[in-house]
Amino acid sequence: MALISLKSLGVTMSAPLFSNLDLTIGSGDRLGIVAANGRGKSTLLKCLTGEMEPTSGEITRTRGLRVGHVEQSVPPDLLDRTFHQVVADALPPDQADSEMWRVDVALDSLDVPEPMRDRPMQALSGGWQRLALVARVWVTDPDILLLDEPTNHLDLARISQLEAWLDALPREVPVVIASHDRAFLDAATNRTLFLRAEQSPVFALPYSRARQALDEADASTARKFERDMKVAQQLRKQAAKLNNIGINSGSDLLTVKTKQLRERAERLEDAANPAHREKSAGAIKLANRGTHAKVLITLDDAAVETPDGMVLFRTGKRHICQGDRIVLLGRNGVGKSRFVTMIRKAIVEPDTVQNVKVTPSTVLGYSDQALAGINGDDTPLSMISRRYDVGEQRARSLLAGAGVVIEMQEKKIGVLSGGQKARLMMLALRLADPNFYLLDEPTNHLDIGGQEALEAELLTHQASCVLASHDRSFIRAVGNRFWLIDKRKLTEVEDPEGFFREVAAAGGWKAKDGHLQAGM
Questions:
Q1: DSSP strand pairing (303-305 vs 481-486)
Q2: 39 — phi, psi (to 5°)?
Q3: CA separation for the pair 367, 379 (Å, rounded)
Q4: Measured in whole angstroms, how far is the alpha carbon of residue 235 from the centre of its chain?
């Protein structure tokens, strides 16, 4: 049964975000929505809730439908409330006393520890804030659940928990997920909508298989378009020949035939559909100046410590060599970010970190998950032109190519979207012309096209790097060495799959007596 039906739906801002969208969402659907940054995913979700009116088309909802919408950001008025209050406040006033038990059920289903429930939202990590928003919506008992970038700020353990939680939901409750997390989409969805400005195809497949089907469909459309254009060109050539003969001979029959051939060519050209070409959100390009050194960094049982000096783990004797793409694996809090900080300090401040030796020719390209390398009060134009001495005209061209349009180049960086900031950071890395990259959560804020471009650049340039990431697809695509931090030890493992399985098992869920229980 369809709970929501869309007919010829379209939304236009300065340009069409999507148009002619026909879609039904019903029981059992786990629908993934895929599009580039700023191309209409959040807008479509708002149309589904009724918060926003489409430019064209119709939306039909079943009578009395309760739509639960988990947005990307925490409303400011919730930040001073506790986790428990944020969820409890979502209950209708007439249910607040008699239905308060529902709050504890929702929090238990998401495995929220008791001490966490009394903390104010502003004191929580981004991941726990996301789960608070999920619980706040779920406690209202929605008929359909909409999730906007639900894995943002979640570590792998919480992502696995969320996947299992979604899988355990009643199948009659459809779930619609807008996300750039490819592995999450594969695990959590059974249909995929590729949102496009002209036609938005839907496949009854999870993301990876749907993407393959989409690529094949686009290739078929491209081939047909080329064939149709060739036929149209041949018809026009024939028409031109007959027209010349008709003029010389004065034949009315040839004149009519010429007109018919031209009309056939025009109909063919009008009906021909070129393959979709995704408008780039901005190019991501990296550099690798290279080095003759085989070993870039030597770790001689270095201690990775907290800021107050407590040892988290020791590295043992290890080498980071040219061409290594080392992925750090481990749960939150084991010291991945502290390890990255230690390596950065050893490169930036030579001879200041004990038992870490850096080859002098090593040139660092560094980006942390908070994008601390860019100042929100600066402007993109002044940052690039000043920091890299490229001149204003060159800076403007580079910024435009990276997706920061002319009208945004002299505005404060703080007003840029997350995707624009991430691409600005990637441009800064490229201009630094490093031969070694330290990247902490580099795919944060990047759409799928951006993630794939970053992967391709790291592989194409054979960049040496150390990465910390929760993006399983990115880890699988890029890593060629894997260092696991566990039980205060760093060990090298063959691949990340064992760690992924362990995290999923530890964060799993099981149904018991009709309630969701945290897996032991």
A1: unpaired
A2: -110, 20
A3: 18
A4: 46
Can you tell me the mean pLDDT for 27-31? Answer: 95
> How many CA atoms lie less than 13 Å away from 275 in the CB half-sphere?
14
CA 378 vs. chain centroid, Å, equals 26
Distance CA 142, CA 205 (A): 25
For the chain, what are the domain ranges? 2-212, 215-271, 295-506
In angstroms, the Cα distances linking 354 to 293, 299, 314, 345, 467 are 21, 9, 12, 11, 22
Token pair in block for residue 511: 């149904």
Residue type for position 409: Q
Place of tokens 């047909």: 224
| Type of residue found at 134 | V
State the pTM of this model.
0.85
With contact defined as beta carbons under 8 Å apart, do 29 and 206 qualify?
Answer: no
The CATH superfamily label for domain 295-506 reads P-loop containing nucleotide triphosphate hydrolases (3.40.50.300)
> SS3 for 75?
coil
Give the class (CATH, top level) of 2-212.
Answer: alpha beta
Same fold, 2-212 and 295-506: yes
Q: Summarize pLDDT for 330-358 with one digit per residue, the tens.
A: 988 899 999 999 999 999 999 899 999 99
Spatial neighbors of 127 by CB under 8 A, at least 6 apart, are: 153, 154, 155, 158
Q: For residue 46, what is the enclosing H or E element?
A: helix 41-49
